[in-house]
Amino acid sequence: MDTPLLNDRDLAFMLYELLDTQTLLGRERYSEHSREVFDATLNTAKTVAEKYFANHNARGDAQEPQFDGKNVTLIPETKAAWDAFADAGFLAAHHSFEEGGLQMPEVILRAAMAYFTAANTATAGYGFLTIGAANLIHTFGSDAQKQRFLPAMLDGRASGTMALTEPGQGSALADIKTTATPTSDGSYRIVGNKMYISGGDHPLTENIIHLVLAKIKGAPAGAGGISLFIVPKFLVQEDGRLGARNDVVLAGLLHKMGFRNTTSTVLNFGEKQGAVGYLVGEPHQGLKYMFQMMNEARIGVGAGAAILGYQGFNYSLRYARQRPQGRLPSNRDASSAQVNIIEHADVRRLLLAQKAYAEGGLALCLYASSLVEETRTGTSKTARDEALSLLDLLTPVVKSWPSKYGLKANDNAIQVLGGAGYMREYPVEQYLRDNRLNPIHEGTEGIQGLDLLGRKVPQARMAGFQLFTQAIEQTLSQARAHSLTAPLAEVLAKHLAPFQRTTHNLMGLLAKEPDLALANATVYLDVFGHITVSWMWLKQALVAARALDNGTHEADFYQGKLQAARYYLHWELPAIEAQLALLDRHDATCYQMQDAWF
Questions:
Q1: pLDDT band at 1 (very low <50, low <70, confident <90, very high)
Q2: Which pLDDT score is estimated for 5?
Q3: Residue 485 and residue 490: Cα distance in Å, rounded?
């Protein structure tokens, strides 16, 4: 049973009805484009994904990369996929025409990229990393660095990585040990070890461009002493030709439960004289620069988690429609034909939850991508600034909520398939294993919770939070004016007010007892996510209600949107009531637990 990649109709709904992406055509940067050009880009992505990525998703999982001590080998389909992806122009799609790009809006690029993730999230990882690394060099690199490294990254001759984590340091980047020593020619010699570096070595490209965090000797302690360096696997001459092998050595491959066809590496920098590195921007500003790639990756991780949830939903829905088993409780005739399992209410519950998680999560991530676009091409400084403030606030939620609930969707997909769900002959068990990495990728839930409650909500006197709640209030006002969405608006409004009160309550505690205030930050993150996704569903429901008013011939599609919104606001959102109560009383149960008591 083939699994479709996403749902073309739903993707069009999100892009053109929910987010009104077509309005971007009125901006000068996109004046040469059209809806047809956008759709052609999406269709090309789908075609390439179906032909070159989907064909080895299971094989890449079963026959993961190998390292013989000298060379890394991947199944050959991976190279064919990389080449097709690069040849279709997706590595440079959002860059300007003058730079060899397609000048695509961010939200269209990310929607196109969704097809590759849906087809094969592990192989798609190489492209995602390279796009992010190239974007960082494009933003912060010198003109000379751009001329030397970007052409190969944009046409597929070189790939990119982000080298942050060290064997002794995971999320606590302030304490990294990798060092950088300046030389007389203006370059640096990098010495240290990095691990969990996705795409850190492979045979897909002639070069790999590592973006490495390190501390220049004598730098200030902590995060303020971190610098960023371009460290190529092979040195690159000024004219772009490859030079000698740099002092970057693959120490070994790591073997994870999912994303198996993406190499996960341990890299040694400087086993001999030190790896040649080139400082990006100013010294000691590296973490600030790297946050561009990290935040881009966080949105990508959230989207990937939602998409894997979506694929599990697609497969289990088709399975439920074709798998006969049992009879309805009202039918006592044992000789009658069995019904397909989708006729059982509890199976529909499992499917409806998946739909709510997958479509809600994807809508959230595409909304975040639309904010990225607004920060770049918004029609006024106010619009750009407000988009940046909202994006900054929501990024921890965009990363974490789909990572948690996309995984939950995959768990439900296995449940729908029953015993078959655990078998490798069916894709849903791989979706779950692949997706289990996303709650860790780019920062755990705990890290995202600390970031949201400890930094993002209070910053700029809660300006981002105020914009967020104002946007929800605007949607509530619109939804109250329609009979189909008015009841849903009241449910969200009922939960929004205590959420706001709890937030302000926590801000007061944060100023006095930050350790206690942040002890339950992960709970607050989950509450914030429920509010945000409820808003996403109310917005989708409002679009659907208006379409039904207009006598659409796609009534079933829009009714499905409304029912998923009802499910999420009636079944999922009320869970925050107990969480808000816990936050309001500053529950210290976990905070007061002591090591010795375990």
A1: low
A2: 96
A3: 9
Q: Smallest Cα–Cα separation from 444: which of 406, 411, 474, 403?
A: 403
CA distance to 8, 317, 540, 579, per residue, from 556 (Å): 15, 15, 14, 35
Burial class (CB in 10 A: 0-12, 13-18, 19+), 408: middle
| Dist CA 132 CA 163 (whole Å) | 12
Name 66's bridge partners: 73
Which token pair is 158? 């070189």
Q: Structurally, how many domains does the chain consist of?
A: 3
- Read off the pLDDT of each residue in 414-428 and give the average, rounded to a whole number: 97
Burial of residue 171, with CB atoms counted within 10 A of its CB: 0-12 exposed, 13-18 middle, 19 or more buried:
middle
Calculate the CA 287 to chain-centre distance. 20
The rounded percent of the chain whose pLDDT value lies above 70 is 100
Residue 258 is encoded by which pair of tokens? 């999912």
How many C-beta atoms lie closer than 10 Å to residue 117's C-beta? Answer: 29
Tell me: do 76 and 148 sit in the same domain.
Answer: yes
Does residue 75 sit in the same domain as residue 99?
yes
The tokens for 84 are: 């097709």
DSSP conformation letters of 527-564: HHHHHHHHHHHHHHHHHHHHHHHTT-S-HHHHHHHHHH
Give every CB contact of residue 70 below 8 A, 6+ residues apart in sequence.
none
Q: Which two structure tokens, joined as six digits, stand for 234?
A: 């092979």
At position 423, the amino acid (one-letter code) is M
Are residues 175 and 136 located together in one domain of the fold? no
Q: Given the residues 166, 296, 374, 442, select the one marked as catalytic.
A: 442
pTM of the shown model = 0.97
Residue span of the structural domain in which 100 resides: 8-154
Query: Any catalytic annotation for residue 442?
Result: yes
Looking at the structure, tell me whether residues 170 and 113 fall in a common domain.
no
Residue showing tokens 């749902």: 7
Q: To which residue do tokens 């949107």 refer?
A: 561
Q: Which residues pair with 253 in a beta bridge?
A: 265
182 and 83 co-located in one domain: no
Q: CA 115, CA 120: separation in Å to the nearest integer?
A: 9
Beta bridge partners of 201: none
User: Crossing angle, helix 555-567 and helix 345-377, to 10 degrees?
Assistant: 90
**196: in domain:** yes
Q: Which of 119, 123, 124 minimizes the C-alpha distance to 2? A: 119
For every residue of 11-76, DSSP letters joined together read: HHIIIIIIS-GGGGGGSGGGTT--HHHHHHHHHHHHHHIIIIIGGGHHHHHHS--EE-SS-EE--H
Residue 245 tokens read as 């092998």
pLDDT tens digits, 488-508: 999 999 999 999 999 999 999
